[in-house]
Amino acid sequence: MKNENNKEGNIEVRRKYIIKLEDGFHVRTGVTIQNFLKNYRSNVYIRKGDIEVKVDSPLSILTLGIAKGDEIEVKFEGEDALKMAQDFDKLVENNFYE
Question: Measuring CA to CA, how many Å separate 68 from each of 1, 6, 12, 53, 83?
């Protein structure tokens, strides 16, 4: 876990996760994440390997082709980033409620 303040006073939090979903990320997972994000003001970026996407739609998540066993890094950036990261931890722990 890494927490930093950037020059605008926003918080940046990074987390790494190993994906345990049997089918990896698919449309339902993308929609679940998108619905989760509606409760927060911060931006979220997901990185797999050398590719990072801003999570602004389920399709943006699917472009990464995240499969079971993949490691991803998630960056939360904004005023409520720490709370968002803590709640996202719970979402991952619960396998995105699938």
Answer: 22, 33, 26, 19, 26
